Amino acid sequence: MPVVVVTDTSSRVPAELRDKWAIREVPLHILLDSADLRDGVDDVPEDIHKRHATTAAATPAELCAAYQQALTDSDGDGVVAVHISSGLSGTCRAAELTAANLGPAVRVIDSKSTAMGTGFMALAAARAAAAGQDLDAVARAATSGIDRTHAYMVVHRLDNLRRSGRIGGAKAWLGTALALKPLLHIDDGKLVLAQRIRTAKGAVTAMVDQVCEIVGEHPAELAVHHVANPDGAQDVAAALADRLPACEPAIVTPLGPVLALHVGDGALAVCLQLAD
């Protein structure tokens, strides 16, 4: 069997693409009251982003079980595991420690991104695996996308950001301007402030402009994510389709409960990977 690709549920790869390219997932966790809910496995309240819940990384036991099964199913050809940035979650560090105990046939890739920023790398690795490439080549297919991947996000509420602790340098600006709509981006694996904008409409426009500037006339893979804001996501996807004719239509998916807890209601995000 070809090399097997594993990711985690933060990657937001749509189920039909996971099935098509045989990508496996390890769940991240949501801790709500006394319950430990596994993203993608257990029923998570749709309004989880409005509740006082916390998140947790995939456990070493879950990672080990997933890698061991994948290694067995690959008939020893190997496993490439592409995970959420180590700057955003403890999952990647746990994965590295787990892989070290399983040997060199398990390769862990720190995507330095999240959502479909991670997902695009997992898809690239899975396509390489399906083409019969060896472990080194499949790992390279993932890592080659790190520098070509960009992610931006508009956050409509600051409450979740204050609680999350995932935003670099947040104390310097989170308390300013009640109407502040931050445009965030992922820089070297960390979520940081890109711009401070007064209106949500202006922030979304700035995000679309930034994405279009990066892509230019070149082909790129695009994804638009949202937290309880499907109409906003469709508007962003339509704007990108109009301005980036060289690109395929964007994948549009919810951001998922784990990431939603950190960014809050109404958030919109765009992830892109420039063509190699």
Q: Can you summarize the main beta sheet?
A: 7 strands, mixed
Structural class designation = alpha/beta
The mean pLDDT is: 92
Binned, the helix content reads 25-40%
Question: What share of the residues does DSSP label as strand, in percent?
Answer: 25-35%
Intertermini distance: 27 Å
CATH class of the largest domain: Alpha Beta
Number of discrete helical segments: 9
List segments where confidence is low: pLDDT < 50 over at least 5 consecutive residues: none
Q: What is the annotated CATH architecture of the largest domain? A: 3-Layer(aba) Sandwich
CATH topology of the largest domain: Rossmann fold
What is the string of SSEs from the N terminus onward?
A: EHEEEEHEHEHHEHEEEHEHEHE
Number of strands: 14
Shape: globular
| Largest sheet: spatial strand order | 9-11-10-8-14-12-13
Number of domains: 2
Pfam family, one: DegV
InterPro entries: DegV, DegV_C, DegV_domain_contain
GO molecular function, one term: lipid binding
Keywords: Lipid-binding
